[in-house]
Amino acid sequence: MKNFEPKTTKTKKGTWTVFLGLCKGCGICLVKCPVKALIFGKEKGVVGQSAPKVIPEKCNLCQTCEINCPDVAIRVDKND
Ligand code: SF4
Ligand code: SF4
Hints:
Helices cover 12% and strands 35% of the residues. The protein contains two helices and five strands, in the order ββαββαβ. The protein has helices at 28-32, 64-68, and strands spanning 6-10, 14-19, 38-44, 50-54, 74-78.
């Protein structure tokens, strides 16, 4: 199995994680993010499409991407 583990990025107020083994690279999260904090990165998802990565200084951890991903491939965790 190659690179299908979760990829977590630290932001100022928490973490943003994409599960490459679930992401199909549909791009819905990029479209839905209200502050354009997501771009397609070098990592590939489960069907070989590019997976999203977060721009940590832009992400405000609003969870819109997590809620709208049809494949439950994003997790957003806020610090306590
Ligand atoms: S919405 Fe989900 S499946 Fe689609 S690109 Fe984003 S993380 Fe991947
Ligand atoms: S948590 Fe909100 S701001 Fe951060 S990438 Fe997802 S939709 Fe964008």
